[in-house]
C-alpha cells in the first residue's frame, strides 16, 4: 500500500533515505519538508543572493535523490548540509569565474573602443577639412605642410608610414607636422576658429 505524505513524515531520516534510495518520491518530499527550512536559513547566512540559495537548495535534494543509496543509516541533516555547502561553494566559484570573464571582456571592448576612437583633433580636421575657417586655414598652409598634416592626422599614418608615402625622412615628417600645427593654430586664431589643444605630435 502506498503511504501518504503525512505517513512518510512520521518516519525517521534513515527510513526516509532508504525509501528515497528505492525511488519513492513522497519520501523525498517528506525529507525536504523536514530539512529544507533550516538548510535555507544556513545557506542564506553564507550567501545574500536568494536566487543562488534557492538553486543550491534544489540541487542539494536532487543530489540526495541520486545518492541516497549510499546513505541509509542515521540522521540526514549533517549529510544534507555537506552536500548543500559544497554546492554553494561551487555556485559561488562559477559566479566568480563568470564575473571575471565578463570583466575581462568589457575591458577588451573598452580598449578596442579607445584604440579606434578618433581624437578631438582628428574629428575637427576630418569633419571640416574642406569647409569654413578650418578649410581656409588649411589652404594657407604650404603644400608640403598640408600633405604632412593630412597624412599624419586625417589619414592616421605613423611617422614612418607618412615618410614612406611622401618620400621624405621621418625627421622631416615630424618637423613639418609641428610647423603645420603651429601655423594652423595661428591661421585659425586670426580667422576666429579653434583647434583643440594641446596638439599632439604624429604617431
UniProtKB/TrEMBL annotation:
<feature type="domain" description="RNA polymerase sigma-70 region 2">
    <location>
        <begin position="31"/>
        <end position="97"/>
    </location>
</feature>
<keyword id="KW-0804">Transcription</keyword>
<dbReference type="Pfam" id="PF08281">
    <property type="entry name" value="Sigma70_r4_2"/>
</dbReference>
<feature type="domain" description="RNA polymerase sigma factor 70 region 4 type 2">
    <location>
        <begin position="133"/>
        <end position="184"/>
    </location>
</feature>
<dbReference type="InterPro" id="IPR013325">
    <property type="entry name" value="RNA_pol_sigma_r2"/>
</dbReference>
<dbReference type="Pfam" id="PF04542">
    <property type="entry name" value="Sigma70_r2"/>
</dbReference>
<dbReference type="InterPro" id="IPR013249">
    <property type="entry name" value="RNA_pol_sigma70_r4_t2"/>
</dbReference>
<dbReference type="InterPro" id="IPR014284">
    <property type="entry name" value="RNA_pol_sigma-70_dom"/>
</dbReference>
<dbReference type="InterPro" id="IPR013324">
    <property type="entry name" value="RNA_pol_sigma_r3/r4-like"/>
</dbReference>
<keyword id="KW-0805">Transcription regulation</keyword>
<dbReference type="InterPro" id="IPR036388">
    <property type="entry name" value="WH-like_DNA-bd_sf"/>
</dbReference>
<keyword id="KW-0731">Sigma factor</keyword>
<dbReference type="InterPro" id="IPR007627">
    <property type="entry name" value="RNA_pol_sigma70_r2"/>
</dbReference>
<dbReference type="InterPro" id="IPR039425">
    <property type="entry name" value="RNA_pol_sigma-70-like"/>
</dbReference>
<protein>
    <submittedName>
        <fullName>RNA polymerase sigma factor</fullName>
    </submittedName>
</protein>
<comment type="similarity">
    <text>Belongs to the sigma-70 factor family. ECF subfamily.</text>
</comment>
